[in-house]
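Appendix B. Chain record.
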Amino acid sequence: MKQTSSPIPGKYIDRFRLDQLKPAEKAIQDLRLPLVRYRKLNGILNALKMQIEDGGDNPDVNAFLIQALRSAVIHQVGADAGQAAIRSIEAFQMSEEARWKQIRDGNFPAIQISIEDRFIDQIQIGYQLLKKQDFVAACQDWVQAWEIAKTMALPEMRTREEFVKAYPELEVYFENWCYDFMFELHNAGVHDPKFYGYRLQYVQEFLSQFPDEDEDTLLNFGRGQGEALWGLGKHSEAEAVYTALVERLPDEAWAYIGWADQYWLMNNSQKQYDRAEAIMQQALKRSNLKDRGDLCDRLAALYNEWGKPEKSKALRLEEKKASQAIPKPQVDLIEQKAKKRARRGRRKKK
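Structure tokens predicted for this chain:
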């Protein structure tokens, strides 16, 4: 009887079938062959895995590869020494034969979608919506993605790095997405204020789950928390968050900048220039302030809008003299720019 191919390749990896092959993979590793001989077996094994991983494969091709793998084991170590590997290969062969019988009978086995694939699906849909500038719809999908991530996170995963070590399939997605989600929730909130509430909840949950993140992350997510509270009209609570942030990170200029922005730069701010000035002047008293030039630029812009160009000019002149007097450390320029982008985050939409 002519065999039938499985359905065309799909978007998901068929992890169930790959799991069925894992005992044979482990048994081959347990043979402890020299690398050059192990590679001969592993090459056949990888070819088989590539055939089955997303469907669209053919039973005749798979059968040849399974037989080749069995014969290669016998050739390398003999039937007796390779008995465990041979049994595992034959067990996989039996599971495949049962699967192909289902297909011939018209019962196509469904691919079991892993939680990693569900998460990736949600964030990819969100990124597609962002390309259309649909911030609200994108964040609706990303709220669901975060709910999935929360079910995957364990208490001992105290950083994003530890999370992706447990789920290596997410390495290229998770760390950057966490930042993107935090920023885009603000943009969605501009259109629908309830997303400020989602942003606040997300930031609080993120910081609770990943308390050992680096200072740049704590800075940006701390600012995100303050911005979300401000957007919700909870100004006194936002003040408390910003106060705690600058106490924890007293030499981070962007903690002060983010705080001061609420009083004059952000949309619908009350233009309390004197309060914004006081916050940024507080930062300038720090002798080891990071990104001092960025803070001076922001304060100078405030003075210009406030109608005090002479203060702006004096500030820029003073900062120029100070920067010329300090020897510049030899820092890799690319690394320096990357860190500055991380601190700044994305420009807010007004």
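Further analysis of this model is presented in Appendix C.
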